[in-house]
Amino acid sequence: MLKIRDLKAKVKSLDKQILNGVDFEVKKGEIHCIMGKNGSGKSTLGHIIMGNPDYEITDGQIYFENELINDLPTNERATKGIYLAFQNPIEIPGVTLANFFRYTTKKFYSEDIPYPKIRKQIVELLGKFGIPEDTMRRYLNEGFSGGERKRIEAMQVLVYKPKLAILDEIDSGLDIDGLKNVVKYINEYVEQNPDTSIIFITHYSRLLQYLSPNMVHVMINGKIVLSGDMSLAKEIDEKGYSWLEDSIKT
């Protein structure tokens, strides 16, 4: 599904190197979790996979379904099946949630499916994620709580049905019940769509209490320095990241 080789990248405006040689691979049907401190490069990796033009790849390759996508624009990556749920979803005044979905679903649903039918499905999904139907009349993310924004970001996985979904700190801003609910429906989606892959990005181990990823990866200073199973996440929870940072230095 996704193969990344020796990826190096920087923030264009700052000319600052963030990724320092990332090697990473996700197979179809797998759930991966990338952990690390703030500033370790986790979110940057998600943005670069999605093709955010604020970042520049200086070396390395990103392959999606065996196709090199380094130079592919964001919208084309999206229509090929990559989705990124933002860490900090922005407000878009003047655009209601209903109109946002009316436009974007045109790219992912057959023209034979009338929008009222799609809208009904979206409203049902809103209910599952604990979001009232009248939210459709509100401007996108304007005045929304952190939890509302994150639930809507996660819900869009079930709306657009991507092949690869990257959820950037989806646990931030959610209470325990909200987090359980989000993970429940994402897990159900993967079970029902066995070719779908999910990447969770987090720096909290609490997400792992409700998730059973195939692999856990730790990122430090723009590189994935260690990968393992759930036992790695438990070790991080007990020891923090300092023991890994110390081992890298030595």
Characterise the protein shown here.
- The chain has 250 residues and is an alpha/beta fold.
- It has a single domain, classed as P-loop containing nucleotide triphosphate hydrolases (Rossmann fold, 3-Layer(aba) Sandwich).
- The chain has eight helices and twelve strands.
- The chain has a six-stranded mixed beta sheet, sandwiched between helices. It has a four-stranded antiparallel beta sheet with strand order 2-1-4-5.
- Strand 9, helix 6 and strand 10 form a beta-alpha-beta unit.
- It starts with a strand and ends with a helix.
- The relative contact order is 0.18.
- The model has no long low-confidence stretch (mean pLDDT 89).
In short:
This protein is of the alpha/beta class.
Specify Rg, calculated over alpha carbons: 18 Å
Helix content: 25-40%
What is the CATH C level class, in words? Alpha Beta
User: What is the second-level CATH architecture?
Assistant: 3-Layer(aba) Sandwich
Mean pLDDT: 89
